[in-house]
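agent> call fold_tool(seq_1)
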Amino acid sequence: QEEKGKKSPTWKAVKLVMRYHLGSLAFGSFIIAICQLVRAILMYMEKQAAMQKNRVMQLVLKAVQCCMWCFEKCLKFLNKNAYIQIALLGKGFCTSAKNAFFLIFRNLARFG
């Protein structure tokens, strides 16, 4: 039975996240959103090229979309690891993303 006046450690952790790390979470999500916006614009441009029957432009845009899809997947993986670094070390997003990237790079054979 809990004593009166004793606060839950979970509530304290939630308050710390809201105060210090919410901006890092928002920044990581913003980067992914920009990538998805670029992909949506490329899809729109591809549909416009299809309406104009410009086959070369369609193929080029499909290739660029594929590259953007791969880039987005890499960003999501990096973001996930950056969030883990934020939780463990309490650093900002950019520092944590850099640390996560070099951690993945050093252990590339294990992540395959």
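agent> call fold_tool(seq_2)
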Amino acid sequence: RKWAGKSPPATVGVFKELGAVNDFTQDLDQNICEAYLWHGCSPLTAVQIGHEGFCVKHQSRAGKRFGEGGYFAEDPGLADKYAGAGEGIYRDCYAMLLCRVILGRQFVTKEFKDESITQRARHLYDSTLAEPRGSTSREF
């Protein structure tokens, strides 16, 4: 497999420059376009993901730009925009997860928003890569 879009996720190069951190970055499989990407969410959602994993079949309150699916970013600043404030013991807290993601064959779009893209691309592609015109931030 080849990386789609203008380049591999920036996190791929960053981790190579930093070297092994307990060797977890060295096991990425480039043949399936595996990368570490950021996911911003509320603290409660982060805890749920930690216990149950990602469940993309449920209707999400966030992440609707390209339809159903998990949303990730190479830029932690972009993921931070999706992080929501917590409640209760998590009041005034926000969460970001560094996730190991298999992108596989990627469908590339230059659109800023099109909720039907993922559904249309699902039969031929494993993931969607958004590189909107005029934006330097990419989402996976």
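agent> summarizing second result for user.
Residues 43-52 form the longest helix (10 residues). Helices lie at 10-18, 43-52, 76-82, 117-121.
agent> awaiting next instruction.
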